[in-house]
Amino acid sequence: MQQTLHQIPYGSRSAIKRKIEEIDSFESLPLMDEVQRAIKDALPDLDYRRPTPAQAVAIPAMLGLSQTKRRTKGNKPEKDGLESFLLAAETGSGKTLAYLLPVIDAIKREEAIEKEELIAQEQQEAEAREKEKSNDIFSASAPKLNKATDPARPRAVILVPSAELVAQVGAVAKALSHEVKFRAAPVSAKNSATVIRNRIFNENGVDVLISTPPLLASIAATSPNILARVTHLIIDEADSLMDRSFKPFTTEILERATPSLKKLLMCSATIPKYLDKYLAAQFPDMQRLVTPNLHAIPRRVQLGVIDVNKDPYRGNKQLACADTIWQIGRASSDYDPSEGREAMSVKRILVFVNEREETDEVAKYLAKKGIDAIAFHRDTDPSRQAKLLASFTGTGKTSEASDASPAPNTADASNKRHLANTKVIVTTDLGSRGIDTVEVRHVILYDVPHTTIDFIHRLGRTGRMGRRGRGIVLVGPGDRADIVKEVRDAMFRGEALI
Ligand SMILES: Nc1ncnc2c1ncn2[C@@H]1O[C@H](COP(=O)(O)OP(=O)(O)OP(=O)(O)O)[C@@H](O)[C@H]1O
């Protein structure tokens, strides 16, 4: 297969491994006490509270504890006082907390410093007024801007590629804000203009703004001041946000925020060659924080291949897909040692297609075959979309019983055969970038992905955070069976994909 990913030498992977092993608890990180306490709110129901490799490399670096600067000769130096980082870590490795914790820590520290400065300034002014009073009883001082509650000028901006991710990252920020007091404003095109205005121009100020690049770029075009105080800019899913479609918006925001920027962090589960080239040219001093397993699909995720060209499918992919789902749905729930309990009784399966038009087509066919299947794309009704995703990401807290009842308009009512306790979402890349689908054990690759980057993101929706997962790829007429074999072999050897 044509190389699409930047290669990381095995020597540097081992060196990072050693560093990661040194950080065995969150307490060993110099985060403020309130941030330490907040971690427990952001990671509920988990006995295992050790930082993940992504967190072990990113948090100390963002806190200024490790300096591993690389410098590419001949390139222009970065802006003075700006520190830039690339966090490249495998899918589902906790990158969200890896950037949120140090960002919030920095915000609280900045706030404390500004408060002290404000008190000192007020004291000085009071003294000056006293002096003036004795000299000139008519003078009045101009009102001062209260830096601590400055509306519509966030200190941190987090950019993500979709409205779903805005909501997901917003929910983690909200969980943290129960303990550490800060204001997060998640805004996306799914919110009404009034909601966006109220969240951003909140009179109590906003600390962290979470949005997509196109929306924020359009807001910044009319309200340029919105980016005037940003000290921390996070570009999550940087492989998407730096690709052709998003790049103009992302770089526009980056340029507007640069004068006040202190820390820039790009996060990604892959380093495609175009990203590597761009970063080497624009950010020669960027610290690259790469986890040892980058570009490798974890061994706990297995990949099965179904040759659709053979009997009984004879080239009929839809039939092969329905049949595979029936087999998964009927198999008894197996024991998952990583969770120490029976796997969920309701099975959730993600089916990935390459083209948006196929989502409806495939979902309809599956529904005809008695399967609760729904197409998920940009035009899906937002409230329906939110409900659907909630049950796949585990944020819905729906009981297994209510979950088991068929959703309206899914499994075809006229069909007597109905596959119980199984839910299917048919989607494109929209569902593969960053969505934390912890409840998903099975991913079906209906189409062979175009690149290894897509393989990594799609298979990355299962086997998250130490859980087991299974990918099944349907190889039909015209599909590149050789590419599938390459990926499968690399996965078997535990090697990074190329
Ligand atoms: N230290 C930790 N211990 C256990 N679970 C954690 C830890 N940190 C994060 N998690 C959980 O891991 C899951 C995945 O986290 P997150 O969505 O941040 O991954 P990601 O690296 O951004 O994935 P992707 O590359 O797919 O976007 C979340 O459910 C999160 O609550």
TrEMBL record:
A motif (Q motif) lies at residues 24-56. SUPFAM superfamilies: P-loop containing nucleoside triphosphate hydrolases. It comes from the Eukaryota. Residues 393-416 are annotated as: Disordered. Residues 24-56 form the DEAD-box RNA helicase Q domain. Pfam families: DEAD, Helicase_C. The keyword Chloroplast does not apply. InterPro entries: DEAD/DEAH_box_helicase_dom (IPR011545), Helicase_ATP-bd (IPR014001), Helicase_C-like (IPR001650), P-loop_NTPase (IPR027417), RNA_helicase_DEAD_Q_motif (IPR014014). Residues 104-132 form a coiled coil. Residues 393-413 have a biased composition (Polar residues). Residues 76-289 form the Helicase ATP-binding domain. GO terms for molecular function: ATP binding; hydrolase activity; RNA binding; RNA helicase activity. Its EC number is 3.6.4.13. Signal peptide: none annotated. Transmembrane segments: none annotated. It catalyses: ATP + H2O = ADP + phosphate + H(+). Residues 339-498 form the Helicase C-terminal domain. Keywords: ATP-binding, Coiled coil, Helicase, Hydrolase, Nucleotide-binding, RNA-binding. It is an enzyme of class 3 (hydrolase). This is RNA helicase.
